[in-house]
Amino acid sequence: MDTNWMARGNCATRPPDTFFPSDGVGVEIAKRICEGCPVQEPCLEYALHHRIDHGVWGGCSERQRRRILRARRLATAA
Ligand code: SF4
Predict the structure, then answer these.
(1) 33 CA distance to ligand 1 centroid (A)?
(2) 31 C-alpha to center of ligand 1: Å?
(3) Looking at ligand 1, which residue's alpha carbon is closest to its atom 8?
(4) In terms of DSSP H, where are the helices of 1-78?
(5) How many Å lie between the centroid of ligand 1 and the Cα of residue 15?
(6) Can you give the pLDDT at residue 1?
(7) Rounded distance, CA 54 to CA 20, Å?
(8) Domain count, the chain
(9) Using one digit for the tens of pLDDT, what is the confidence trace for 22-78?
């Protein structure tokens, strides 16, 4: 899977731990940085494809990614 998009993300110049917050406030801060990121879509798809269960990726928290994966599984099964 192509990962060249990573260098173009809004987070490229931020400390990585910003995107692995320990509380809800930190999650919201990270998600705000993701807003308007030019590579939000490939970032989210990368995290979903690799089942990454920690951190904020593509503007989505761990919980949001679990919901997306569940919805996709249900859509595929239908
Ligand atoms: S969507 Fe967020 S985590 Fe992904 S590359 Fe952009 S800023 Fe970084």
Answers:
(1) 7
(2) 8
(3) 11
(4) 24-34, 40-49, 62-77
(5) 12
(6) 78
(7) 7
(8) 1
(9) 999 999 999 999 999 999 999 999 999 999 999 999 999 999 999 999 999 999 998
Pocket of ligand 1 (CB under 6 A): 9-11, 19, 33-34, 37, 39-40, 43, 56-59
Q: Is the Cβ–Cβ distance between 44 and 51 less than 8 Å?
A: no
Query: Atom 2 in ligand 1: which residue has the minimum CA distance?
Result: 34
Nearest one of 57, 43, 59, 58 to 1, comparing CA atoms: 43
pTM, full prediction? 0.94
Full domain range(s) for residue 25: 4-77
- How far does residue 58's CA lie from ligand 1's centre (Å)? 5
In terms of phi and psi (left: phi > 0; alpha: psi -120 to 50; beta: otherwise), the region of 59 is left
- In degrees and rounded to multiples of 5, residue 60 shows phi and psi of -120, 140
What's the confidence (pLDDT) of residue 31? 98
